[in-house]
TrEMBL record:
It holds the Pfam family PAPS_reduct. This is Adenosine 5'-phosphosulfate reductase. Residues 49-212 form the Phosphoadenosine phosphosulphate reductase domain. GO terms for cellular component: cytoplasm. Keywords: Cytoplasm, Iron, Iron-sulfur, Metal-binding, Oxidoreductase. The keyword Iron applies. The keyword Transmembrane helix does not apply. Its main location: cytoplasm. The lineage of its organism: Bacteria, Bacillati, Actinomycetota, Actinomycetes, Streptosporangiales. [4Fe-4S] cluster binds at residues 123-124, 206, 209. It catalyses: [thioredoxin]-disulfide + sulfite + AMP + 2 H(+) = adenosine 5'-phosphosulfate + [thioredoxin]-dithiol. Belongs to the PAPS reductase family. CysH subfamily. It comes from the Bacteria.
Length: 236
């Protein structure tokens, strides 16, 4: 039984967000995770792009069996799909493969080939944002692995947020982690990592829209290179 089912049956979720965001700003990562699990119970899930399993490792220590949503766009690298399968085999979580309403072939028949190059925002919406939105409908909250250090658009995010677009709570337990802290956690705990990281891909998205990054380049410069796009839309 969760806090929502007992002490606060009628409390508005936005009120929970405001009080928790203030109380948990700067709190240890596991404290944030424990608060979210105690508050939302089975009505919280975790999303992962399968770049690494750091957040999966952290959350599964507090809530084994948690649902992990992976959006299978149909354009992923084989290494990303392989990481998803490895996560399912190694960690005590329930991986849920989320797919768009149309296959790649059906989308190309309706909208033409290479939509990702002609209209990447629409392609991301159809193959990432919309299917994830459908998959999240059964939950009250979700864990996200975004970090402030990744992009300028994420610097003003909060550890607990009201996801207005989806009408639910978003929890960002590793928001303040630096890349060094992430690397150290992965090494110290033997966390699974997408092998593309070792081939020059510090940020991994769909194969047609992701290229390797040269030493010294911005880690996310390989995403939608040359298109002036930095986000798929899930975290906006």
């Amino acid at each position: 039984m969760t806090l929502l089912e007992t002490d606060r049956p009628t409390l508005d979720l936005e009120d929970i967000v405001e009080s928790a965001a203030a109380a948990l700003e700067g709190a240890p990562t596991l404290e944030v995770i424990r608060w979210a699990v105690a508050t939302f119970g089975d009505r919280i899930c975790l999303t992962s792009s399968m770049s690494d399993a750091a957040l999966i490792h952290l959350v599964s220590k507090v809530k084994p069996g948690i649902d992990v949503l992976f959006v299978d766009t149909g354009y992923h690298f084989a290494e990303t799909v392989g990481t998803r399968d490895a996560v399912e085999a190694v960690y005590p979580v329930n991986v849920i493969n989320v797919t768009p309403s149309r296959t790649v072939e059906e989308q190309e028949a309706a909208l033409g080939p290479r939509l990702f190059g002609r209209n990447p925002d629409l392609c991301c919406h159809l193959r990432k944002v919309e299917p994830l939105g459908r998959a999240l409908e059964g939950y009250m909250a979700w864990f996200s692995g975004i970090r402030r250090a990744e992009t300028a658009s994420r610097r003003d995010r909060r550890v607990v947020e009201w996801d207005r677009k989806r009408g639910m709570v978003k929890v960002n337990p590793i928001l303040d982690w630096t890349q060094e802290e992430m690397d150290n956690y992965i090494e110290d705990n033997g966390v699974l990592v997408n092998p593309l990281h070792y081939d020059g891909y510090p940020s991994i998205g769909c194969a047609p829209c992701t290229r390797p990054v040269a030493p010294g380049e911005d880690p996310r410069s390989g995403r939608w290179a040359g298109l002036g796009k930095t986000e798929c839309g899930i975290h906006l």
